[in-house]
Amino acid sequence: MRKNDNQMSPARQLAVSVVLGAVVGIAAILILFAGFAALIVSGTVPENLMVALACAAAFAGALIGAFVAGRRNKSRIVVVGALVGAVLFGLTLLGASLNESGSLISSRTPVYLAAFLLGGVLGGALNMKKTHHKRA
């Protein structure tokens, strides 16, 4: 943590962590999309797997973003992870609303919501400290 993080309120620390995690998550998703697009264009991966790859990118981006956010926040890390996933899903819906063709909500929307939230929660959970119990 930075020197001035001790001066921030816990709510502000949470908000900064979530925003940072969302930015990292979006960057990870964009990098994955670029890689998947190259694979599809080259013919290595069939085009009909595009939806599954997009869902995998959503999960991985939320996982990476939540992991980074949880490392920064150190408290309520599962909540931070879930919030990162929710923000990423909201940004995805915002992006879909800017597209003039098609509808905002589709039959795949719950799948993407689950991928974002599950990735976020698991990314936050990866930051949990493991406790070692002594056996008597």
Spatial separation of the terminal alpha carbons:
37 Å
Low-confidence segments = none
Oligomer: single chain
Largest sheet: none
Write the layout of secondary structure elements.
Elements: H1 10-42, H2 50-73, H3 77-98, H4 109-125
Put the structure in a nutshell.
The protein has 136 residues and is mainly alpha-helical.
Primary descriptors:
single chain, 136 residues, mainly alpha, 71% helix
Question: Explain this structure to me?
Answer:
Helices cover 71% and strands 0% of the residues. The chain has 4 helices and no strands. The protein starts with 9 loop residues before the first helix and ends in an 11-residue tail after the last helix. It is an all-alpha fold.
